[in-house]
Amino acid sequence: MAQKSNSDLFCVSPKNMIFYAPYNRVQRRLITLLNPTEERLLFKVLTNAPWQYNAMPNCGFIEPYDISEVCISLHNFEFEPHKEYSHRVCIQCIRAPPTDYLNNQTILCIFKQVRRSKIHNVRVPIELNPEPICIPQHEVDAIFQNDIQKLIWDLRPINTDYMAQLKEVTMAGLRKRCSWVRMLLGPLILISTGLAAAYIHHHFQNEPFTEIKTGECDY
Predict the structure, then answer these.
(1) What totals of helices (H) and strands (E) does the chain contain, helices first?
(2) Any residues with CB less than 8 A from the CB of 23 and at least 6 apart, and which?
(3) 102, 56 in Cβ contact below 8 A?
(4) If you write DSSP's letter for every residue of 152-204 in order, what string do you get?
(5) Who contacts 32 (Cβ-Cβ below 8 Å, separation ≥6)?
(6) How many Cα atoms are found within 13 Å in the side-chain-facing hemisphere of 178?
């Protein structure tokens, strides 16, 4: 099996992240990590501007042929439009060690013990746009229209035809259950009656009779 290069052990999407003004609030972006191998992977998230970015989670697992999502948060800061920013996020990934070894180690400690040549890196550059995001009005209208149509569909009234159909289905289920009860109840009654008769017959046949003397009777 050919050894994978230093960046194709896993896949990262998107290839770059864009944040938009204003920067007086927290902004969040999602990064998706894909594991296309049959091995379990460990990942760690780094940035060259840790005072401005936060990753949640900052490390974790990626199961075979599965994905993991990382939320990158940009904290509010004094953005300078004429300043050149070279922020980026780096995703590091390694093959997971055996489970018994992993139980006694944290993921960050395992990364410290792995040789640099065994760590796979994918860098995601960050673009800080000085202008607010611009969405054409027709796209905004389409978004709201779709949301309204979905809301109307979710809140649609239940008409009488649907209620009648629901009632018919419910009554059919009750009739079916009642027929099964009647079919089972008849044999049970016969069996219980036969057992009771046999018990009474056996009881009186074997019970000893006590002789009553005439002098002991009260008249």
Answers:
(1) 4, 9
(2) 74, 76, 77, 78, 79, 128
(3) no
(4) HHHT----HHHHHHHHHHHHHHHHHHHHHHHHHHHHHHHHHHHHHHHHHHHHH
(5) 12, 13, 67, 68, 69
(6) 6
Q: What is the largest CA-CA distance in the chain?
A: 129
What averages of pLDDT result for each successive group of 10 residues across the chain (219 residues)? 58 95 94 95 96 96 95 94 94 90 82 93 96 78 69 57 57 61 63 64 49 40
Facing residues of 10 across strands? none
Q: Give the pLDDT score at 218.
A: 42
Identify residue 45 by its one-letter amino acid code.
Answer: V
d(CA 77, CA 33): 28
Neighbours of 130 (CB within 10 A): 13
Helix, strand, coil percent content, the chain, rounded in steps of 5: 35, 25, 35
**Checking phi first, is residue 65 left (phi over 0); if not, alpha (psi -120 to 50) or beta?**
left
Residue 171 is predicted with a pLDDT of: 66
d(CA 111, CA 123): 17
In what side-by-side order are the strands of the sheet with 67-74?
A: 11-13, 27-34, 67-74, 53-56
Question: Closest Cα partner for 62 from 89, 90, 32?
Answer: 32
Nearest to 34 by CA among 63, 5, 71: 63
Q: Do the beta carbons of residue 151 and residue 125 sit within 8 Å?
A: no
Residue with tokens 């089972």: 184
